[in-house]
Amino acid sequence: MTLSGNQYEIAAGPYTAVVTEQGGSLRALSRDGRPLVLSHDADVQPPAASGQLLAPWPNRIDRGRYEFGGEAYQLPVNERALDNAIHGLVREGSWAVAEHEPHRVRLTYRLLGHSGYPFRLDLTVDYSLDAEDGLTVRLSARNAGSRPAPYGHGAHPYLTLGRPLDECTLTVPADRYLEVDDRAVPEPAARDVAGTAYDLREGRLLGDLRIDHPFTGLRRDADGRAWVRLEDGARSVALWADEAHPWLEIFTADTAPGAMRRAGVGAEPMTCPPNAFVTGTDLITLEPGAEFGGSWGIVGG
């Protein structure tokens, strides 16, 4: 048995993917044998959160402290160098397989009361492949407890073209972004990307540009999807996010370990920005019995 548990393989047309029991994570995704996301061995912990699902919050909570419903809470700080609680509570847990067909897999996870998060959620993730449309992922949460719960989610794939990011063009359809401090905690108010290095709306050769910022004000197509594209002139890979995800974290993997460093770009769909448990920005309050879900996907070109 590998460290990440059972490995669920799915395929359709030119696409193949591997989803893991641990964290319900996307460990690999390829088209015609060419990786579209950075992968890792099944017997190692996912480096730099690679492919993980992030719930009940994405990204960081400043020092792990927040208030909700008139109560103060302290989450375990698991990003010790920066003194933050990062990426939720479900990415290390064992997700149960509910359905597994050749082209899709559905996993579930029951989040019981946790230190700093005394709420109960039932989560479901569905990964499906289509020969034309590539990968679609839907993550949903239902409040199975007796009181309202704060909630947000995200995902952490790294798009790759198999070459250094410096040689790739990145397009992010965002009008605004959040500046961050030296602990990667964002300021509350969004800034206009116009005139900054983070104006990626028309595509930009990355060169040595470093990014680890949340983006919003997303421009969408007729189907309500916002598209992030990584291109090198011959090939492309694109991630889309539906309207349940008004935020994208873009990370050029400058602090990722070893060969991952600047080999792919973290394109992370999020329902809320970092530190939303503190600021309340786009934070979802799930009432008992209520459910919330959203979808995103990846297509190779």
TrEMBL record:
It holds the Pfam family Aldose_epim. It comes from the Bacteria. InterPro entries: Aldose_1/G6P_1-epimerase, Gal_mutarotase_sf_dom, GH-type_carb-bd, YihR-like. SUPFAM superfamilies: Galactose mutarotase-like. This is Aldose 1-epimerase family protein.
